Amino acid sequence: MIATDKTLVKQPVPADVKETRVVMKGVTWETYKKLMAEVGDDRAWRIAYDRGVLEIRMPLLEHEVPKGLLESFVEAIADELGIEVLKAGSLTLEREDLTNAIEPDSCFYIQNESQVRGREEIILPSDPPPDLAIESDYTSSSVNKQTLYSALGVPELWRYTKKTLLVYQRVEGGYEQCDRSLAFPFLPITEIPSFIEQSRTRGQRSAVRLFRQRIREILDTQSIDNS
């Protein structure tokens, strides 16, 4: 069993929170790295680490479904645009110099895809961070994830919460909520939750096909307007 230099504190989770979450304080960077090495990548839980505070959470189905659909939407956009993206999933993003680490629900390399294509390992800050991180929130976090993503240099963050998609762009000192995507400026942000909700009755693949059709309509309109 790994011990830290300080006493570990399990922070209580509110009774109305269904997601399993454990928070430990006083976890040194060395202990965090040993823990991650021991458990390996074959695990369901995800982490966030901020200067001694380690949060471990086990996602639920209601958390994973929107995340999976958002991944499919990004891939559909890439296909319609004819561009390459790299879906890096819950890639561990960490920087020892900042004593920060986080595993997003999912992330993508879009603008910087060619720089990491075919790579077996990505190391920050020598490699670029993902261009887009996705968080599907059903609970509050004990660490400020926006601060972590900003420190790690992720340009864009999507947060799906309470049937709403919030889009943030990185600015000096953190993130700023905006009404359009940095990677995909034409994307109808306010319409995306409706496609996620439609998946509950029509099925996930039907929702993705409807979304793809909507993207085609937007791109065709843009093509006509620019001709």
Describe, in short, the structure shown.
This protein is α+β, with helices and mostly antiparallel strands and 227 residues long. The chain contains 6 helices and 11 strands. The strands form 2 sheets. It has a 6-stranded mixed β-sheet with strand order 4-7-8-9-10-11. A 5-stranded antiparallel β-sheet has the order 1-3-2-6-5, with helices on one face.
Description:
The chain has 227 residues and is of the alpha+beta class. It contains six helices and eleven strands. It has one domain: tt1808, chain A (Alpha-Beta Complex). 34% of the residues lie in helices and 23% in strands. The strands form two sheets. It has a six-stranded mixed sheet. Helix 2 (61-81) packs parallel to helix 6 and helix 5 (192-202) packs antiparallel against helix 6. Mean pLDDT is 90; it is low at 1-17.
